[in-house]
Amino acid sequence: MTLFDRFLQKQFDFKFAVKKVKKISIKMSVLVKTTTSIIKEIKNNAKIVNICGIKYLCNYKHISSNYCLISKETSLSKILISFQNVIQNQRRNMSMCESQKQELVSVNESRRFMIDCFKAFGVPQIHAEQQADLLVAADYRGHFSHGLNRLEYYLNDLSKKSTDGAAVPKILKETPATAWVDGCNGLGAVIGNFCMDLAIKKSKTAGVGWVCVKNSNHYGMAGWYPMKAMKEGFVGISMTNTSPLMAPTRAKEAALGTNPIAVGVPAGDDHFLLDMATTAVALGKIEIQRRKGEDIPEGWAQNVEGASTTDPEQACCLMPLGGAEGNSGYKGYGLASVVDILTGVMAGANYSTKIRKWNALGCNEQADLGQMFVAINPNCFDPDFETNMCDLNSRLRNSKPNLF
Ligand SMILES: NC(=O)c1ccc[n+]([C@@H]2O[C@H](COP(=O)([O-])OP(=O)(O)OC[C@H]3O[C@@H](n4cnc5c(N)ncnc54)[C@H](O)[C@@H]3O)[C@@H](O)[C@H]2O)c1
């Protein structure tokens, strides 16, 4: 019996639970450490998830590149590194030796792991698949803060019963082009998919479909939903409000979330996709700097007094997109407000400081987020839309490079 097996057996009485153990940062080097030191790190950092009788050791951090999975069947010499690292390495054109490649987890394995985790918390298969597909897609596109990293948040909400994994959204009111939906506190991806599919359906007959939902949960990468519309040849727009993290210009406490906006436009075989938070940066980027012990750039965050800070330890609120007032941060503040109006206020959901605070430990309180989903059939307008979109893309791509 290996040391690893003995370690697992000590945990055998855990049932469908996530055990919280002290969290500390692990550097990438953990992946190449000796077996014994890995075991020590695991004991200090790991969570055990019991999925249908199989114990999984999830050894992961919020820095996505440091995510690795170790399953019961995995021998100690074969630490499985998340597929996120595959993508990152590919992006950086890093060459990997054969032994490193063998240690990588495939997209399918990552998806399966997440589905099993959701099912262990009573989520029906079809809902678990939708949620896992969204998280995998976020990692695949390089938005690591909204991929596997979010799994812990969602599982803890499910375990605290502040999210109902089996809930199915229902339409409260509709016209040929609009619908108001109650998300019934289900999983964000399930609700988001339902609403975007409904918007697409309406745009097929009315030319435009606009859906607002209340009683929703964190719906992950906002760009996922316009991407659904683009597959149908439609323009897609989606926004969500989120827990307060951003201090409005001239304020020293958070009153708006990172409130992302995503707009997707098809262009034949090409497309345009904007998917961005309306804060200067996502919170995860500050966490990363904190772990690395490095400063953050001016304009990302402010301290408890309301002054801009470059010390991640002092960061209390995020600054809006643009940063300080002198750098037009009030435009980011304005954009975040527009998101809250078109989502929380228009849907009759929570907004601003009415939204709960949320972290990886989950929350006992329901989120009741508001979201909006729009699909537009471009054929309702200029027949040269596609040609002109392709032309716009190439003009932008071919603009003279700035080498400074
Ligand atoms: N559900 C939620 O509550 C929530 C909240 C906030 C953010 N998010 C998601 O987090 C993810 C990350 O958001 P973010 O704002 O940190 O994204 P980001 O800053 O990485 O990118 C924002 C946009 O800018 C583009 N971009 C990035 N670098 C670029 C460059 N150098 N040149 C040109 N374009 C560039 C990206 O393609 C993207 O469209 C998104 O998927 C977003 O939807 C979700």
Summarize the structure.
This protein is an alpha+beta fold and 404 residues long. Helix content is 35%, strand content 17%. The protein binds nicotinamide-adenine-dinucleotide.
- Structural shape: globular
Q: Multimeric state of these chains?
A: single chain
Please describe the biggest sheet, giving its number of strands, its sense, and whether it closes into a barrel: 7 strands, mixed
Strand line-up across the major sheet: 5-6-7-14-8-9-10
User: If you average the pLDDT, what whole number results?
Assistant: 80
Specify Rg, calculated over alpha carbons.
22 Å
Strand content: 15-25%
Tally the helices: what do you get? 12
Helix content: 25-40%
Q: What is the CA–CA distance across the termini?
A: 59 Å
Please mark out the parts with pLDDT under 50 across 5 or more consecutive residues, or reply none.
1-95, 99-103
Small molecules held by this entry? nicotinamide-adenine-dinucleotide
Q: Give the helix/strand class.
A: alpha+beta
Order of helices and strands: HHEEEEHHHHHEEHEHEEEHEEEHEH
Give the tally of β-strands. 14
Q: Layout of helices and strands, plus pairs?
A:
Blueprint (H helix, E strand, L loop, with lengths): L2 H8 L24 H11 L1 E5 L2 E6 L8 E4 L8 E2 L1 H9 L6 H5 L4 H14 L4 H17 L9 H9 L10 E5 L3 E5 L5 H19 L1 E9 L7 H8 L3 E6 L20 E7 L2 E7 L6 H10 L8 E2 L5 E2 L7 E2 L10 H19 L21 E8 L8 H13 L7
Parallel strand pairs: 6-7
Antiparallel strand pairs: 1-2, 2-3, 3-4, 5-6, 7-14, 8-9, 8-14, 9-10, 11-12, 11-13
Bound molecules: nicotinamide-adenine-dinucleotide.
Nicotinamide-adenine-dinucleotide binds next to strand 10.
